[in-house]
Amino acid sequence: MPEAKAAIVTGAASGIGRAVAVHYAARNIRTVIGTFPGDPHDPEETLRQVKDAGGQAVVHEVDVRSTDSVEAFAQRAVDEYGRLDYAVANAGILRNAPLGELSDERWHDMLDVDLTGVLRTLRAGAARMGEGGAMVAVSSIAGGVYGWEEHAHYAAAKAGVLGLVRSVAVELGPRQIRANAVIPGLIETPQSLDPVNSLGPEGLRRAGNDIPWGRVGHPEEVAEVIGFLTSPAANYVTGQAIVVDGGLTVK
Ligand code: NAD
């Protein structure tokens, strides 16, 4: 039996990140669950679901705004499991800001998490991976293919993620390490359920009616694609971005 692989997932105390940890658990991939201390999400619930799925994981506090914190997070996989195979740069924030109120500070705060946070995660991950390693960054239709009023900073960060991933993929190809992105559409998570910065429950329900698939997405449906992109099934796929949106952006 080959040794079980190991992954780091940022922002895994909720939403898409939690679903990725559970997806990995069911495939015998050991995970370091990244949890952000400032948020109300419950990493123990992720851990419980991982164990229910028969998996192995540890919870580790990480703030993707800090290089030291992210380096320690990636190192935890090596210390705990003796290896790091997969890195999922999932942590992100969403903030609403009309252009006239989009101060330099708000812009930098957003990019620090949603773009530089991805760089820090991929960099720390790649430094500890060998041949067969794979990384996925979570972008958004707002950065990939879709304009969203009052979210210019979010969209810019998420667009930046796509360029970052393409270049990293080219650079790491000779080491047989892959880097890809997912571009989720509207997915029901704490982020999209926030009525201030996003659509809220009622807005999501209404938006779902306009999506060809007839509803918004589940976090597990994004996790499946992330799992595919890190798996050996995607061995020759690198530098790509897959839209997971129920047809929203091709309508
Ligand atoms: P979520 O709010 O449940 O997850 C985001 C996670 O990031 C949270 O657990 C939060 O604690 C963590 N986080 C925030 N700031 C952090 C920091 N500085 N350091 C470390 N962790 C931090 O929402 P989600 O929808 O699951 O979001 C996951 C990713 O998917 C995000 O990058 C988000 O932008 C992206 N996304 C979501 C949607 C959607 O409709 N939900 C659509 C497109 C893209």
From TrEMBL:
PROSITE patterns to which the protein is assigned, alphabetical: ADH_SHORT (PS00061)
InterPro entries reported in the protein's UniProt record: NAD(P)-bd_dom_sf, Sc_DH/Rdtase_CS, SDR, SDR_fam
Lineage top rank: taxon: Bacteria
Family stated for the protein in its record: Belongs to the short-chain dehydrogenases/reductases (SDR) family.
Record's protein name: SDR family oxidoreductase
Organism (species): Sinomonas terrae
Lineage start: Bacteria, Bacillati, Actinomycetota, Actinomycetes, Micrococcales
